[in-house]
Sequence to fold (349 residues):
Amino acid sequence: MLGLVALILAGLNVVVMRSSVVGALAEITQATDRIAGGDVKSEVPHLHRYDEIGRLARAVQNFRDAVARIFELEEIELGTAHARDAAMTERDRFNDKYLAKKWQLSAAIDSMPQGLIMLDSKAAVVAMNANYPRIYDLPETIQAGSTLEEILQHRVKSGLFSGDVAKYVAAVRERIAKREPAANEISLNDGRTIKIYERPMDGGGWVSVQEDVTEQRQRERILEGMERFLATIIENVTEGIIAKDARNQRYVFVNKAAEKMIGMSRGEIIGKTARELFSAEAAELIERRDQQLLAQKQQLEPIIDTIDNPTRGRRVISARRVQIGGASEESHMFVTMVEDRTEKMVAAA
Fold:
């Protein structure tokens, strides 16, 4: 009897062991397989047990958490790699744009017809374009890092500077310190005229643009001489020359002959309209002739009119008219060349 009971208990023990241990181990094994397969969100069974099965379950849970952390770190590393690659691509693209802009700027500066030089606060050369050394015939040794004093010493040797080098450098450094822009012209010993523009730069530096304006000044002198020559002729011809601003109909010029014909000084005439100087009838005639000129562009054939002069009475005049400029230009003028024929008409009668 006792043997039968023992046998039954042994059987029950096997069943219990199979259900409580072997089954639990199988479930934990399955959970481990799922975790190994990448399912790091899988639940681990039997965590609430306090026996060996519970300790094993908690060990598997720790394994699951470690795998999950590894996956998380791999994702972060992958994201970081993508971000790093994207940043490197953006940096390369920015560098390409920067180098292209730098090349364009350098090419633009070197293609300037003017000479350009940049100085730091101590009057040392930061940069200069190709035309600057050409203007002053400087050697190749003058480049970034050279000083303004060295440049001037070379100009002294070549006869292109005759001033006091120390005083000139001191004056430039003072302007740099005060950040005062400047513009002036210098005459070189070889007859050239150089226009110099100086401006402060951010950070205490200085930029100077220097332009050879010799031909421009020569043309200006020739033009000024021609203007004086033409002014002398216009002022002394026997015909009256009258110029009027076509936009507002105000007189802007009369020569001596016109002053005499009208009987007023140019100070009394210039800036006024015909209606301010002449009778209503005479002003209407003048305005009508102006409208005809506006339509015809020019009236080179003389037109004979009888007009009431405010100081000399009725006069017979012959007038030719031309337009200078166009309606959209500031210099749009009507020019009238007037001859007083009153005396000739009286003599002929």
User: Anything to note?
Assistant: Residues 110-213 form a domain with the Beta-Lactamase fold (CATH 3.30.450.20). Residues 1-19 have pLDDT under 50 and may be disordered. The two ends are 180 Å apart (CA to CA). The chain has three domains: 2-79, 110-213, 237-348.
